[in-house]
UniProtKB/TrEMBL annotation:
Domain Peptidase S53 residues, every copy: 83-414
Protein name in the entry: S53 family peptidase
Composition bias type Low complexity, residue spans: 279-290
Biased segments, Polar residues type: 260-278
Length: 414
């Protein structure tokens, strides 16, 4: 359903299947951890996509970015992983350290990560989080048909899976986690996996992937993403404003999640955020949809169609999060991309409580704008109207209404 994508310079190019070209980032040796990098070069930290950004029409790509400027070394007992961990995210977004009991956050990704559960166990034990395993009923992994006949493993998508599982753990340590692995990165398989997650009872479903709009979004909306009473999140993309709007983030039935740079500071909050923008071709996605109609709860006046994004969370690899991955990785690494932001926001919804049975939870933040951290600095490109790509007071494309400040913005009611 996605015909062409743009390369790093914004030109349309054919894609080949992401399911066949998942990028590996292998470092020789056993389990290792990222250490603090030396003083960065003038160009700053560097990162790479873990999934191929070239995929066939009808396919999507994942939006995980992995830092490539971190040296690897074995961890000692006194080491801590580089990158933000659970206590950082809980502090930055004013989240409870417990909560989510009885709630299930579903992660939808393509291909199999055979080390998903064991890697998750390492992440959680390292940070002192409760066990989340198949044995205690907290973690489950299924294929898109609900079986345990998992698809073919892919080291690139495994990086995405590790990022997603770790961000749910960091944000909502008490939540159960359901990993649904699609047979491929086709929209039909990924959409089928979304439906499977909902049929399994998940009220919160994170999608850290996307592709260009091509005019068939209405069909996919009705087939896969129109689930009243379920909070479905989708990453806005990593190609900055120049890449155009991504689907399913542009669906009016999902919460489109943009990205920020998150930095500790001396303010009363203790943190500051700006639009994530590494370059003209790497940063939080945003923009006015070409095809999707504007939902009634979205009130910006410069775009008559659906505007992306709704809210945001940390996505800049330079201020990235700690992730543990061994299938295609060598242990601890620092990740970013709006792939990190989507599962964070899905987990905040889970902490906030079960959505109304007939609600589209993407509307909730619009009724609680004062309960968000308004991001007012930075841009992800050049645009007109300026709010499509430039942060300012109130709503803007790259960060939407802002980032979580507690749970109130993600609950029902006005």
């Amino acid at each position: 359903m996605f015909h062409l994508t743009r390369n790093k310079r914004g030109h349309a190019v054919p894609r080949v299947a992401a399911a066949l070209l998942g990028a590996s980032a292998l470092i020789a040796g056993g389990a290792v951890a990222a250490e603090a990098a030396p003083a960065p070069a003038a160009s700053g930290p560097t990162s790479a996509h873990v999934c191929s950004q070239a995929v066939h029409p009808g396919y999507a790509t994942c939006f995980a970015l992995k830092r490539t400027d971190k040296k690897a070394r074995a961890m000692s007992a006194n080491d801590t992983p580089s990158g933000y961990g659970p206590s950082d995210l809980q502090s930055a977004y004013n989240l409870p350290t417990n909560g989510g009991s009885g709630q299930t956050v579903a992660i939808v990704d393509a291909q199999d990560d055979p080390n998903a559960e064991s890697d998750l166990a390492t992440y959680r034990s390292t940070y002192g989080l409760p066990e989340c395993s198949t044995a205690n009923g907290c973690f489950s992994k299924i294929a898109q048909d609900g079986s345990t006949n998992y698809p073919t493993g892919d080291t690139g998508w495994a990086g995405e899976i590790s990022l997603d599982l770790d961000m749910v753990s960091a944000t909502c340590p008490g939540c159960h986690i359901l990993l649904v692995e699609a047979n491929s990165a086709s929209m039909s398989d990924l959409g089928t996996a979304v439906n499977q997650a909902v049929s399994q009872g998940a009220k919160y479903v994170s999608n850290s992937y996307g592709g260009n709009e091509d005019g068939t979004e209405a069909q996919s909306d009705s087939s896969y993403f129109n689930h009243p009473g379920v909070a479905i999140t989708a990453s806005s993309g990593d190609g900055a404003y120049a890449a155009g709007t991504e689907y399913p983030a542009s669906s009016p039935f999902v919460t489109a999640v943009g990205g920020t740079s998150l930095t500790k500071d001396s303010s009363s909050r203790g943190w500051s955020e700006s639009v994530w923008d590494t370059s003209s071709s790497e940063g939080a996605g945003s923009g006015c949809s070409s095809d999707e109609t504007k939902p009634t709860w979205q009130t910006d006046t410069g775009c008559t169609n659906r505007m992306v994004a709704d809210v945001a969370a940390v996505a800049d690899p330079a201020t990235g999060v700690a992730v543990y991955q061994t299938y295609g990785g060598s242990g601890w690494a620092v990740y970013g991309g709006t792939s990190a932001a989507s599962p964070i926001i899905a987990s905040v919804y889970a902490l906030a409580g079960t959505p109304g049975a007939n609600d589209v939870p993407a509307s909730y933040p619009y009724a609680h704008t004062s309960n968000l951290n308004d991001v007012t600095t930075g841009n992800n490109g050049t645009c007109s109207p300026s709010y499509y790509c430039t942060a300012g007071p109130g709503y803007d494309g790259p960060t939407g209404l802002g980032t979580p400040n507690g749970l109130a913005a993600f609950t029902a009611g006005s």
